[in-house]
Amino acid sequence: MESTISPMKTEIIQEDRLIEAIECLKGGGLVAFPTETVYGLGAPVFSESSIQKIFSVKGRPSDNPLIVHVGSLEMCEAVAESLPPVFFHLVERYWPGPLTLVVPKRLEVPLCVSGGLATIAIRMPSHPIALRFIREVGPMAAPSANLSGKPSPTSAEDVLEDLEGKIPFIVDGGKCLVGIESTVLSLVGDRLRILRPGSIGKEELEAFLGAPIAGVAHDMPIQSPGMKYRHYSPKAKVVLVTQRRDLEGECILSPKPQGNMRLLTMQTLYREFRRADRMGISTIQIDCTDPALLGEAVLNRLIKAAQPHSSFYR
Ligand code: TXA
Ligand code: MG
Q1: Best substitution site from 70, 100, 222, 233 to test ligand 1's pocket, by max atoms within 8 Å of Cβ?
Q2: Distance (Å, rounded) from C-alpha 158 to C-alpha 173?
């Protein structure tokens, strides 16, 4: 999708100028802000024209729904309805934090936010700047603040790299602590289901709830439209290597680095992808000799980034 927005000056601002960012949002502009997972590109959830701008600026397909960021249970009630008991149980334990819950949407929320779905994804981020922002502006729809298909941004500079000239403000909140997008858990339908793995794992949630949770269903894209698009991809080719003897490229990421390999964790994944692109590296090799060391969330992103270059875990 071509952006229809004319170029503008993009400023990275500190928290002391948050009031300008809030005024900008209220006037229909977009603002990128930090969360503990990755940076988000925000707009008030009930402002349809601002929401349309998010899709246009990111080049995001209109059927890929946005996450709504809230700062209180009252804000949840303003965008969602028929919230089940398990919702409140999870919220009490995991919010604010990197857990997104998919629940029935209130009719008042514009359909463009949910990509036409009758459900809505909501989460309360824990970053203090995000929370201050949301408390001033109200519920805020925000996808990751990258161009569609690129790795998510984990610093204000990453956002600038993708969105310079397209949005007026990026609020700098330092490096994101988690480094990978939130776990998305669906509470609708006949069973609880992880739609996107994140730092809060399936086993942890099952232990907390004392109930089984279905894993990511690769054959059910309709449940989480975003997962069908190519994602998280650097320009460099990403190759998942399963034999130690094949690890020999100029850029090797490993959960247990040796020699000139670079450390791969949830926190470093996107940062390393972007670094490789800035350095003009053509191929990134991933040490998958012991995939369990990487964890489900990182593996999920790697498999998407590697397609169609890899037959690993197809
Ligand atoms: O950590 C995060 O979640 C970050 C920060 C900014 O909060 N946000 C983020 O948003 O990653 P985004 O738009 O890049 O990813 C949203 C994901 C997509 O995979 C989308 O398909 C899914 O959530 N999603 C949103 N609403 C949904 C719904 N109603 N049903 C199923 N999946 C939904
Ligand atoms: Mg995203």
Answers
A1: 100
A2: 12
Checking if the pLDDT of 28 tops 80, the result is yes
Mean predicted lDDT score pLDDT of the chain? 92
pLDDT at 304: 87
Distance CA 118, CA 222 (A): 12
Cα(168) to ligand 1 centroid in Å equals: 23
Instruction: Give the nearest ligand 1 atom to 125 CA.
Output: 7
Of all protein residues, the one whose alpha carbon is nearest to atom 13 of ligand 1 is 143
Taking the centre of ligand 1 as the mean of its atom positions, its distance from the CA of residue 15, in whole angstroms, is: 25
Both structure tokens of 278: 């800035």
Residue with CA nearest ligand 1 atom 32:
224
Q: What pTM does this model have?
A: 0.94
